[in-house]
Write a structure and sequence with these properties.
The protein is mainly alpha-helical. The protein has helices at 3-13, 17-34, 37-40, 50-66, 92-104, 108-134, 137-142, 151-157, 163-183, 186-202, 208-221, 236-263, 281-297, 302-317, 324-343, 361-376, 378-382, 384-409, 417-421, 430-435, 454-459, 473-481, 492-495; strands at residues 443-446, 463-465, 484-489, 507-511, 514-518.
Length: 532
């Protein structure tokens, strides 16, 4: 057999864009099954960062049941002024899910499914980007899917937070930019700006790759040629205005969010940064130790992260064989990632999802590496051995991700212990509350709960948790005067708190591990039921 002929035939057979989309769909479905997505779709908010999950769902449920306007988001936690009005992310998805609930009923799986669908389209856009750039369907089916082997991506893609939807919209925006590169068609540039605008509104930090693209525009403005054949931005005034419009949209929204929170309830959601310079050396060490744990278990396999670093170094080493566009984007995005880590360093300790916005760097590294390999090491790139190793490596990472997903939802692990022991009972407490005479509109205190909304959302009662109260007797009295009528406790430590003993004289019932007390009437107390 003539090896050269076989190799040429192999190269031709590796590019099949007419059918590759179906192969992508099949692989995506297989991974969803491996990660137990069908079962997870039916689950209530739980496990890692149930806190933030319930915040997102609380905004959605309030849109659904209170019929408030788009620019009046609120949560079950009523805050300092008793309205619960507060905002963080642009509430497009929350509001949209609320409208779906009005048609199909309140089902949390609709929210999860929508986020999974957004992630599918983001991954599909990434796959097409690789395929069109490399003219290789096989490698385009392997390497982008490495992103879907990250436990933090896999977990939050089938969840309620906005980080993965923002990443997905960013990937779609990146695809349209590369389509614009190859066609120069204005409609692709418009779609590129539109999707990045939406991504930034959901999470401003998802504009990391957009900033990399803006750097290309700025270089051309100062007459530095990036492409050898032609300019990328042939209409700099119009295209520059559209790029600027993306940032202006963000400025308008986050200015409104700051104003809205200052007017009603600031401090519930972060609209700002958590920089490293606010910590002392001991606190910095704690964050670094937590990040090491995340590196071992949450981002990717440790070996995979090392491989990404090696790819990055090789791309820089062989920069002369690299596409200037990919190289410049990679450098600017890396600098942007370093800035992000400094500005949000404090959040890295307990919030694994804060790194999701940085994951857009992974496909850019992979595409740059494959492009370099295609140019500099053609025999390796086209070899069956390289592709076989890539497939085995992908499967190895999928298996790691599968085990991590099982751990996050396992009844044996710490991740779900508090939910399974106590918090899940709030989901079914409704009939008990009505039997005790507690109405849906009654304000309550749930002081075993240190989160903002978990227990309040799960039982759909507005009021206050221990967040911002800290078992402080004077603050509890203040909340009673603002209309709190009942107190909920579910752990023994809370029941033994000395500061709570004044409010535990009138127990009216219990539900599983939850004890319910009627709060005393204080002078000057607001009767919120009077106007109902």
């Amino acid at each position: 057999m003539d090896w050269k002929v076989s190799l040429d035939d192999f190269k031709k057979s590796s590019y099949f864009p007419r059918f590759s989309g179906w192969a992508f769909l099949a692989l995506f479905i297989v991974l969803c099954l491996v990660y137990n997505y069908p079962h997870i779709l039916s689950l209530s908010p739980q496990s890692v960062h149930q806190w933030r999950q319930c915040d997102c769902l609380s905004i959605t449920l309030n849109y659904y049941q209170d019929h408030t306007g788009f620019f009046q988001p609120s949560v079950h936690y009523l805050g300092r002024d008793g309205t619960g009005k507060t905002v963080s992310d642009f509430p497009l998805i929350y509001f949209f899910v609320a409208q779906l609930w009005k048609v199909f009923g309140q089902h949390e799986f609709i929210f999860r499914l929508l986020n999974v669908c957004l992630f599918f389209f983001g991954m599909f856009a990434l796959f097409r980007l690789f395929e069109q750039w490399l003219k290789d369907s096989v490698l385009a089916l392997i390497f982008p899917f490495l992103l879907f082997t990250s436990p933090v991506i896999t977990y939050y893609a089938n969840n309620f937070l906005m980080n993965v939807p923002a990443l997905s919209l960013g990937m779609i925006g990146l695809y349209f930019f590369f389509r614009f590169l190859s066609t120069s068609e204005s409609r692709h540039f418009l779609f590129f700006c539109l999707f990045y605008s939406l991504a930034g509104l959901l999470k401003i930090t998802s504009l990391l790759s957009f900033c990399g693209i803006c750097s290309l525009f700025l270089l051309e403005v100062i007459s530095i040629q990036i492409r050898p054949d032609r300019k990328i931005f042939s209409r700099p005034f119009i295209q520059g205005a559209l790029l600027a419009a993306v940032f202006i949209v963000q400025l308008i929204w986050y200015s409104f969010a700051t104003y809205y929170n200052n007017r009603y309830n600031s401090g519930i959601f972060l609209v700002g940064t958590l920089p490293i310079w606010e910590l002392n050396s001991g606190q910095v060490s704690e964050v670094i130790q937590a990040v090491r744990h995340h590196i071992d278990w949450d981002y990717f396999r440790r070996e995979t992260q090392i491989l990404f670093v090696c790819m990055f170094v090789l791309v820089l080493f062989y920069y002369k064989q690299m596409s200037r566009i990919l190289l410049l984007m990679l450098v600017v995005m890396t600098l942007g990632m370093a800035s992000y880590l400094i500005l949000f360093f404090q959040a890295l300790k307990d919030h694994d999802y804060y790194t999701i916005d940085l994951f857009i760097l992974v496909p850019v590294i992979l595409l740059a590496f494959l492009s370099m390999l295609q140019i500099k090491f053609q025999k390796v790139y086209n070899s069956l051995l390289f592709r076989s190793v890539a497939i085995i490596f992908l499967i190895h990472n999928i298996d790691f991700d599968r085990m991590r997903m099982e751990g996050r939802y396992s009844p044996e692990g710490w991740e779900n212990k508090t939910y399974l022991d106590h918090l899940r009972h709030f989901e079914t407490i409704g009939p008990c509350l009505r039997e005790l005479g507690i109405r849906k509109e009654d304000r309550v205190l749930s002081l075993s709960d240190n989160s903002i909304n978990i227990s309040l959302y799960l039982m759909n009662q507005k009021g206050w948790t221990n967040y911002g109260i800290g078992m402080d007797t004077s603050i509890i009295r203040e909340k009673i005067r603002m209309g709190a009528r009942y107190l909920f406790l579910y752990d023994e430590e809370s029941k033994k708190s000395k500061s709570l003993q004044l409010f535990l004289h009138n127990p009216i019932g219990s539900y599983k591990t939850i004890q319910i007390y009627k709060l005393p009437v204080l002078s000057g107390q607001v009767d919120v039921r009077a106007g109902l």
